[in-house]
Amino acid sequence: MTAYEPPGDPGAGTEPAPGPGPTGPGGAGYDAVVLAGGAARRLGGVDKPGLRVGGRALLDRVLAACAGAATTVVVAEPRPTARPVTWAREDPPGGGPLAALAAGLRHTAAEHVVVVSADLPFLAGPTVGRLLSALAASDADGALLTDADGRDQPLVAAYRAPALRRELAALARDRAAPDGRPDLAGLPLRRLTGALRLTRVPDAVASFDCDTWDDLATARARIREHGHVLDEWISAAKDELGIDLDVDTKVLLDLARDAAHGVARPAAPLTTFLVGYAAGRAQGGPEAVAEAARKAADLALRWAEEAADAGAADAGAAPGRGKPDVAPDATPDTRPDA
Hints:
The protein has 338 residues and is of the alpha/beta class.
């Protein structure tokens, strides 16, 4: 454990993820290697990458954080995943992190490689970006996270691929199997990182990993804390629905509030659904969602103004001079954290 501070169609294919997304340092793309074949002894040997936090498998949460990679390689036995990946396996299976890293690295071509384990519930895209930026800003061979106690986390890191290949080759030369093949099985990761020049990025949350059942319970509790639950739910829903779209959540929440106040409470979820449907039909991105939300919010405002005029007329006041009334079945706010 690292110290902690406070389904659509599964992509089970073996091809690389389609097309590079966000770029790495200096405008260059990056690849990702996810190590997911550990024995999980402290969890009784269960399938750790398949354990769920916030309704999503730990492996799928990590894959979402690496969505910008041109190629994502998962070193483990193939399984259904939310995103397409390339599968690899160390030789022998269960040979440890160095053997797994070497197996995954063979399927990459980018200059920079993000290397992560599959048990990081709070790893996110911005953290991957920070690692890549830290690597670009230095002459180091790698940039890794440190946990709350200042300990290095070499399996939450971005590396220069040539440096990894150089040191892996040196280790392989020093330790060959009887038949002459390179044998990295059982070697600790520090044999590699000890030969690299590293820069460090402190992050007590993103470096948190799930090694025990207590760790898993902590992760599941944290995502339901005030200030986290809505973002976690939206991320989980987007993954489940196969949506890769960033929208202004506040715009949609404000629209839901306006519809509830100006029309009726059930209008809130129906209106946000219609906005999403309209944006989808327009084949637009976040801008289409924002434009549809603006139109719907203006409509809700007109409804509220008519209700205010009607209330003012009943009270003997001139139309347009009364205060908008809240719809009879509306609530003060539809936002869960309001």
